[in-house]
Amino acid sequence: MSRWDFGDQTLTQLTRKTGSTGDELGTLITQLIDAAEPLSNRFNGAGKAAFDSFKSRADTITAELNAGLTSINEGQGGMNQAFMTGNTTMADDANTNMGAANFDAAKFR
Fold this sequence. Notes:
Elements: H1 10-36, H2 45-56, H3 58-100
Helix pairs in contact: 1-3
């Protein structure tokens, strides 16, 4: 049986960090295109066509990557909510069961 042992803020922090990654990724794609631009005149044939295609589709690629990250982020948020609900339910159930338990019956005299 596996055991999940992490702080109660781990998924919250992960969700926050993933949310900001999309903006960073878009910036990196733009920087990649800008950095490769001086080399574009050296490309010929299929290489040039591939670079031009990537450059013209940069906004679409960025949007698709951001959509994927958004889906991941939503999943992380859902997982966080499920763990928080499970943690609260487990504590409530334990308290309810302890309140109903007859601890005096377990004493050996």
